[in-house]
Fold this sequence. Notes:
375 residues, alpha/beta, six-stranded mixed sheet, 15 helices, 51% helix, globular, disordered N terminus
Amino acid sequence: MAFPLPLWLAVQDELLRCEEDSGSGSGSGPGSGPRSCFDSFDDEALFELVHLNRPCAAFITDAVRSHLQADKSPLSVESMVLVALNYYAHGVLSTTALQKVGLNKTECLTTVVSTVSEVIAAMADQFISFPMTDDARCRVASRTKDFCGIPNLLGILAPAHFKIRASPYEINAFRSFINCQGFTSVVSQIICDCDGNILSVEKCCAGRENELDMWEASLKQKEMEEGLHGSFRLIGGHSYYKSKHVLTPVLEPSSRGEYRFNAAHGKLHNVMLAAISEMKRRFECLMQLGFAHEGSLNKKSIIIKSCCVLHNIAKKFSVPSLPVAGEIFPQWTGKQYSLGEMNPEILKVRQEVIASNFSYCDSEWDRITTEEEEQ
């Protein structure tokens, strides 16, 4: 994240104090009317409407206000943000939100949501940040090693698929959106840390796009290829077998060390799966992004990036996760390849990591396992 944690906490404390000073948290203290459309809802109703708590929604509103250029919309910034957050949370615009701001669905979808989405997506450099200094990289790698035991890692790399509808009458275009799991989608490359914070999200492609090709063409791969991040690497699924910058699991483990490495790799990779799942539960628009064609990928990318920004902000404000309701389709972990096809450089690195960090004696393994179970 671009902002240090103390600053985030200071902002959060200030918002919470403002909320307490306003009375009951609904903004309707004695002798004063609602200050904005958000204040017309109590905390529970507001959370149901936007899947965010009041301090987080207030912070987002202030951030959008500071970045929103002069707009001809008759709506206040608060009303525009309320409508957009309601759309992100449910994938449709609720009657409650529409009535509160006095707009019809057509107007909202074509103006307000797109305007707010463009503003939030443009703030990605502030709220989605890959560690770019030596100190930042060392801190992330240290925290990751404490979490899973694998050293010199900056994050988890994975493709995130988001369902769309595509016209079956345009055969070639339709086929380009059918992914390896058999449904139509767009896919974005995402990197997150061991806490589930998103560190990088790159433009979305048609669902058929190969994740290794996406990685090879990505900005982060080019940075690593140029040596910008030194000896630090990422982890990812089997699909990244050719990259010398991505540690993949051992396909056919044959030793205790390899099994232990795979367990650590899986523990970390599950953080990414959980983060994407949590983001889709909070922002249900990502469960179905509507009709798409090659010319609309940029619009889908803006929505996805906006939700990634909001995901990071929600985590910093400790917004409760939503319960699992219904099926969220599993993330594609990648086609499996034989070890002989792996990049020899990363294969050597993986063997060294296993030898140095996971090939300890059984008594040491039992001690570590016992300590983890007690924690």
